[in-house]
Write a structure and sequence with these properties.
Blueprint: H1 10-13, H2 19-27, E1 30-34, H3 38-50, E2 54-59, H4 76-80, H5 85-96, E3 101-106, H6 114-118, E4 123-126, H7 131-144, E5 148-154, E6 157-163, H8 171-174, H9 187-190, H10 194-213, E7 222-227, E8 232-237, E9 266-269, E10 274-277, H11 287-294, E11 299-302, E12 307-311, E13 314-318, E14 324-327, H12 332-342
Parallel strand pairs: 1-2, 1-4, 2-3, 4-5
Antiparallel strand pairs: 5-6, 6-7, 7-8, 9-10, 10-14, 11-12, 12-13, 13-14
């Protein structure tokens, strides 16, 4: 890339620790962003404007009105169009920066596809809202030797840590097993503040720029915890855990989540009174055929990205890959029954 094309990043390059050399590395990099909700939209916005050469945005979900309070790349028109988050984010960011490649991927990340999704990335970013996906990212990153950055926000509090396989503790060094359902607060029970999301995502984005620019000595080595409501900032020293914890992932090289031994195919969605049922298919669903079967049973709407079907107090959002988000229940057993009843096995 010639110097003239880097002019848009001139203010960034004038920051001495980054400079032109660091910027050139950034524009040649590939980032896989897992999740494009609250954290993910802030991350995608920062990285696209900073000039990340290829940004792969992976998200399974579509946009709803309650997302607009904190998910900064979306608007009411996106809701009206029933757009998937990854696609809507890509459309916005291509207008912001047409010189980079933005690749939206509308899919659920699981053990069957994560290596393909992140395998060519220089960095993996956590924009998710659940520990299952984070442990899966951790397994893939450690096995592939790729850096990743963890972030999470609930209520007014958030936390983040940077993982460099072989050099820092991984997520399972810190939290060996995922908290069981119901044991931790969610955005449905505790709410979430947009400013808290912006703070944690911005910390993640700064760490991302350091990694992509090769500024390894400047990386954060702590678990950072911030509460924007009561103005507390804590740093938990975790570097000493490296090699001292009998970690099943980075020490024993046991990748239970990546190998499918852990995790589920049914997920209760945060704050949605909804369950996602993931049924992986070899070929895309025929929305026309499915709509024909459902039209006499309730209201059916569809576009190229999804089919929506409402009946008996439940709303189904069905994606081409066979996944469905079933709104109106948090009961995974009932959700599976509804899926089998209306969508099929």
């Amino acid at each position: 890339m010639v110097l003239e094309s880097l002019e848009r990043y001139s203010r960034q390059m004038r920051f001495p620790p980054l400079g032109e050399a660091g910027q050139r590395k950034i524009v040649q990099s590939t980032v896989a962003l897992c999740g494009c909700g609250a954290l993910g939209t802030v991350l995608a916005n920062h990285l696209a404007r900073a000039g990340v050469g290829r940004l792969r945005i992976i998200d399974r979900d579509f946009i709803e009105t309650h997302n607009l309070q904190r998910q900064i790349l979306f608007d009411e028109d996106d809701v009206a169009q029933n757009l998937p988050k990854a696609e809507a984010a890509a459309r916005k960011l291509r207008v912001v920066n047409s010189s980079i490649t933005i690749e939206p991927v509308v899919t659920d990340i699981d053990h069957t596809n994560i290596v393909e999704l992140v395998g060519d990335a220089d960095l993996i970013l956590d924009g998710t809202d659940n520990f299952e996906t984070r442990y899966l990212i951790n397994d893939a990153a450690v096995k592939l030797g790729k850096p990743w950055i963890y972030g999470g926000v609930i209520g007014s509090e958030g936390q983040t840590m940077t993982v460099i396989p072989g050099k820092t503790p991984c997520l399972r060094c810190l939290i060996e097993t995922a908290p069981p359902p119901g044991m931790t607060p969610t955005c449905e029970t505790a709410g979430v503040l947009g400013p808290a999301v912006a703070v944690i995502a911005s910390f993640e984005a700064v760490e991302a720029l350091k990694i992509l620019a090769g500024a390894w000595d400047a990386l954060n080595t702590h678990l950072i915890m911030v509460d924007v409501w009561d103005w507390t900032f804590r740093q938990l020293k975790i570097a000493g855990l490296m090699g001292k914890i009998d970690c099943p992932c980075c020490k024993k090289r046991e990748f239970e989540w990546l190998e499918g031994g852990q995790g589920s195919h049914t997920t209760t969605l945060c704050g949605r009174n909804a369950v996602q049922v993931a049924v992986r298919r070899q070929d895309a669903l025929d929305f026309g055929e499915l709509a024909g079967r459902l039209v006499g049973l309730g209201e059916v709407r569809r576009n190229a990205y999804m089919l929506r079907f409402a009946t008996e107090g439940h709303e189904f959002t069905v994606f081409p890959d066979g996944r469905a988000i079933i709104k109106g229940t948090n009961d995974v057993v009932k959700a599976r029954t509804l899926y089998a009843q209306f969508i099929g096995g």
